[in-house]
Amino acid sequence: MRLWDQEFTTGHWDFIDNTMGDCVYPYLERYSRNGRLLDLGCGPGNTANELAASAYQSYVGIDISEAALQKGRKRSETNGRGDKNRFELGDFISYAPSQPFDVILFRESMYHVPLKQVKAMLLRYSNYLTDGGVFIVRMVTSRSNGTDNRRLKSMVDIIVQEFEVVENRSDGNGGPTVVVFRPRRRA
Ligand SMILES: C[S@@+](CC[C@H](N)C(=O)[O-])C[C@H]1O[C@@H](n2cnc3c(N)ncnc32)[C@H](O)[C@@H]1O
User: Fold this and answer.
1) DSSP code of residue 184
2) What's the predicted TM-score (pTM) here?
3) How far apart are CA 134 and CA 28, in angstroms?
4) Which CATH number is 63's domain given?
5) Range of the domain at 107
6) Does 32 contact ligand 1 (Cβ within 6 A)?
7) Which of 6, 50, 109 has the most ligand 1 atoms within 8 A of CB, as the residue to mutate?
8) Is there an atom of ligand 1 within 6 Å of 140 CB?
9) Spatial distance between the Cα atoms of 109 and 25, rounded to a whole number of angstroms
């Protein structure tokens, strides 16, 4: 936690404060259905401030770094989204939401989930999706030299095996993977 706070207060991550036009936004706009969005590992509030305000009704961002959350809150106030966006300190491995959400997002944050915990964690969060709600995971599954990162590829495999995949975007050129999925319906 202290490490992430340091990263955000030293300006190390300032370059990621502007991610307008990111490939995840059209997915969020499509699946938010003007509803509630939970952003796990939200960082300094990019999604909360760059996603079209008309796409969602309310937003909760969870992060382990208070420094990142402070940035998110400040940006939201400046953008007139102070009432719409809420930021809470928490560890997404154990966080328990207090309401269901239309979209549960892991944007560039699944890297920090131990592979062994991916399935159990996602199944647990399935209990906090609305009817018709979806998970959206965005991450880069290849290394800078173009080879696959096997740990991250394995995460995608777990998702494909255990969940109903609605959309799976991977451009194969080292670009981001975006997977939209939901719990399998019980027979
Ligand atoms: C690369 S940043 C991505 C930030 C944001 N989602 C985005 O795409 O702009 C990863 C974020 O995950 C957060 N994080 C890492 N481990 C976490 C955990 N166990 N629980 C909550 N947040 C965590 C970090 O503090 C950091 O803000």
Assistant:
1) P
2) 0.93
3) 10
4) 3.40.50.150
5) 20-182
6) no
7) 109
8) no
9) 16
Asked if the structure places residue 26 within a domain, the reply is yes
Give the start-end residues of each E strand in the chain: 36-40, 58-63, 85-89, 101-107, 129-139, 163-170, 177-183
**CB–CB of 181/164 below 8 Å?**
yes
Pocket lining: 64 vs ligand 1, CB cutoff 6 Å: yes
Does residue 165 lie in a domain region?
Answer: yes
How does pLDDT run along the chain (187 residues), one tens digit per residue?
Answer: 667 777 666 655 555 678 999 999 999 999 999 999 999 999 999 999 999 999 999 999 999 999 999 999 999 999 999 999 999 999 999 999 999 999 999 999 999 999 999 999 999 999 999 999 999 999 999 888 888 899 999 999 999 999 999 999 986 666 899 999 999 986 6
pLDDT on residue 14: 56
Q: Say how many domains are in the chain.
A: 1
Give 165's strand partners. Answer: 181
Query: 11 in a domain, yes or no?
Result: no
pLDDT of residue 76: 98
Distance 42 CA to ligand 1 centre (A): 6
Predicted local confidence at residue 171, as pLDDT: 65
Q: Of ligand 1's atoms, which has the minimum distance to the CA of residue 16?
A: 9
Residue 21: CA atoms inside 13 Å, Cβ hemisphere, count?
1
Domain for residue 5, yes or no?
Answer: no
